[in-house]
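Before the break, one more example. Copy the sequence into your notebook; we will annotate it together after we see the structure.
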Amino acid sequence: MKFINTFTLRFLIAGLGLVLPSAGSYASSQDEAMSYDTVIATWQPRHESIAHLNEAEKILTSSRYLTAGGDERERVTRFTNRLRNNFDTLNAGQKERLIILEARLLQGVHKFEQAKQHLSQITHYRSPAAQLLLADINIQQGNTAQAKHYCEQLVGQTSFLIAFTCMVNADFSEKKDAKLLEKLNAFETYTSAARPDEKQWFYEVLADMSLQLGNAEEAIRYLNQTAFNALPISALLVWAEAHFKLGEFDTITNTLAAAVSDISTVDDGLLLKWAKAERAQGITSSNVQSRLAKNMEIRVWREDSSHAAQVATYFLEVQPNYALALKFAKLNWEYAQTNNDKQLLERAQKAVDA
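Here is what the structure looks like once it is written out:
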């Protein structure tokens, strides 16, 4: 996966077509203590049922923010299973929305091919939400041309800002070219009429491009166009990496400590950034690092493909175990093949060979 930021378009999907819109010896000692029922988050399941599709779409989108409780995907999965059992009673619009919701769940655990097959049940060219999702899946798989094809189909079906950002983002995923950043930045004028989620995504893409081109200050400037508490996890990963590049480690730790009330619900990728910032300050033991270690232990035992990039990075940069890092970098490469995934695999191989 694109570890710094997948730029998954799911934050926009809920607002488009739907209202129309991440073993070996390390784990072997844990076999008796763990099972596939072992949970990573410590949230207590909420038992209230989701009443309708609008609510389910919003809840799934909310899972990608700091305020998430940790049980959103499980609740939405129960809802989709219930609706699937009554599929024939749904109207055409409801069926399409359910299929896209199910595909988003599949994408979230890196079941990309299954998600694409699932979306084949609907007419793609009439569904901006499906096109956005297919564009994102293909970017994560390294299929730039196909991703851009789906982005181009958005023209005339959604805002120009979304369609153009999607196309430039697809091109940049293949070739990190400063001209693409300049090209996208020129369309900042269109943000004046954009919805808040469209505007946020536009600036997030610009921020990630800037960061990958070596300009962390500019990345932060773009992210500052959105209130910190309104940034999704994907944008927070860019924010943390930018501050890390600038050596502003205490900014990362202090800001996250103030914003997070329960680290057990924090995304593993963000925990990883947080732990790295602590280590950079000489902090070798903390609740954050203990939580991350526990999460990684479980991911290793499960051979969790959806978090393989995070596991590989953890064993490269936080708790060196290069053999495990390579194992999970290879596992990640089986599913996600962006340039960042390739670089992660190369780094792990180099560490093992050293």
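Confidence is low (pLDDT under 50) at residues 1-8, 17-44. The first helix runs from residue 10 to 13. Try to locate both features in your own notes.
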